[in-house]
Amino acid sequence: MKSARAGLAGAAKAVLASRTFLAGVFFLALGFFALLTALSWADVSLVAPAAASLTFVTNAIAARFFLHENVDKRRWSAALLVFAGVALLAR
Fold first, then answer.
1. What DSSP state is assigned to residue 17?
2. Do 48 and 14 share a domain, yes or no?
3. 57 and 26 share one domain
């Protein structure tokens, strides 16, 4: 393993050259700017629960389709209830 022998600089270079890492940074920035945009349009009392519920729902979806986890009916029901609660809050 080359990067292990190269020390901290080699490890940092390997991480920064990783497409997965760069994609993660891109989507983290995208989420941050989406949150800032939502905060410029609505009150924080509406945006904060919506962002939290969106995280909860997307985690369930990602667990099922990307990580191939067995997401049971109880978790899907919880995600739908959280989503419905935020939808009611938004009205």
1. T
2. no
3. no
**Maximum alpha-carbon separation in the chain:** 58
Domain identity same for 59 and 36: no
Question: What distance in Å separates the CA atoms of residue 64 and residue 56, rounded to the nearest whole number?
Answer: 13
Q: What is the pLDDT of residue 1?
A: 52
Contacts of 59 (CB under 8 A, 6+ apart): none
* Structural domain range at position 80: 42-91
How far is Cα 58 from Cα 4, in angstroms, rounded to an integer?
A: 35
Taking the C-alpha atoms of residue 38 and residue 19, their distance in angstroms, rounded to an integer, is 28
pTM of the model: 0.63
User: How high is the pLDDT of residue 23?
Assistant: 92
